[in-house]
Amino acid sequence: MKTDYDIGRVAKMSGITSRTLRHYDDIGLLTPAWTGPDGRRHYGHTELLRLQHILVLRELGTGLDRIASIVDSDDPSTTIALLRDHLAGLTAQRERYARLAATVARTIDSLERGQPMTTAHIFDGFDHERYEPEARERWADDAVDRANASWQGLGEDGKRRHMRTDREIVEALGAAVRVGFAADSAEVQDIVAKHHAWLSEIWIPDAAAYRSLTQMYVDDERFRAHYDEVARGAALLLRDGAAEFVRIRL
Questions:
Q1: C-alpha closest to that of 145 among 136, 155, 156
Q2: Is 115 inside any structural domain?
Q3: Cα dihedral angle (8, 11, 17, 23), rounded to 10 degrees?
Q4: Distance between CA atoms of 89 and 33, rounded to whole angstroms?
Q5: 243 and 135 both lie in a single domain
Q6: 5 Cα distance to chain centroid
Q7: Closest CA to 138 of 208, 61, 60, 194
Q8: 246 CB contacts (<8 Å, ≥6 apart)?
Q9: In the predicted model, is pLDDT for residue 248 greater than 70?
Q10: Which stretch of 80-89, 113-122, 163-172, 236-245 has the lowest confidence by average pLDDT?
Q11: Residue 12: which domain range?
Q12: Mean pLDDT lowest for which of 10-14, 76-80, 112-116, 144-148?
């Protein structure tokens, strides 16, 4: 089995760029096994395993400094324990996406057959309640109770419309990132206004709460992954756009 791959081959296999691999070498995160006379980096089996560990951690939203401290561990038992934790996290994500995929498949089937779905089936996989304890700690019971009541008050049609609007916001933010719109641009401010209006259907945050919420979208990898689904950096753009929105309108 071949255990010597040059940087171009590793980039192709791993899905990251040669530039990223060179950066990892520059900061000491992933040093190649050897470098040829032409300056081309080469990687062996050990380096490929280290790269796999780095990429798993990166997908989980871990910062490079933290990644370095984890992969530099010389204790195999520590490394194995950490990998088991990562596996558990990935398995949980896989199971959640499998539920969401099944929900979408049921929706397609119900639309094709003209048969209505129950509310439980429509929202299976979204699991709003798993965030409730955190919300109660952050915003107190009264606010969460009012938000829950508002959500239930939307009815099935309102809930479907609410979820569609959320998707439209995610896609619009992703497009804004790709085009390069600034947080204070009219285009981004329109998206933020739509997001604030969407949120206000369930809970009307004041200026401080809205800033706190959009900061959480950046800090919490679960929410960041949702907003960054179309383009990385969308959660940051929403946070920065919200700060401008609050300054001008709230």
A1: 136
A2: no
A3: -90
A4: 30
A5: yes
A6: 31
A7: 208
A8: 207, 210, 211
A9: yes
A10: 113-122
A11: 5-72
A12: 112-116
Query: What confidence tens digit (pLDDT) does each residue in 91-145 have?
Result: 666 666 666 666 666 566 656 666 554 444 444 444 455 555 555 555 455 655 6
Average pLDDT over residues 153-160: 80
For 3-15, b where at least 16 C-beta lie within 10 A, e where not — what string? eebebeebbeebe
The number of distinct structural domains making up the chain is 2
| CB 7, CB 31: distance < 8 Å | no
Same domain, 215 and 150: yes
**49 and 141 part of one domain:** no
The whole-chain average pLDDT of the chain stands at 79
- Note whether 245 and 131 are same-domain residues: yes
Q: How far apart are CA 245 and CA 202, in angstroms?
A: 19
Residue finishing a domain among 28, 52, 72: 72
Helix H or strand E segment including 176: helix 155-179
Whether residues 148 and 243 fall in one domain: yes
Domain-embedded: residue 136: yes
Q: Are residues 54 and 137 in the same domain?
A: no
Confidence of residue 164 (pLDDT cuts 50, 70, 90): confident
* DSSP 3-state of 167: helix
Helix (H, G, I), strand (E, B) or coil at 63: coil
Sequence-distant (≥ 6) Cβ neighbours of residue 72 within 8 angstroms = none
Minimum mean pLDDT among 112-121, 177-186, 213-222: which range? 112-121
Instruction: Give phi and psi for 28, each to the nearest 5.
Output: 80, 15
Q: Are residues 40 and 133 in the same domain?
A: no
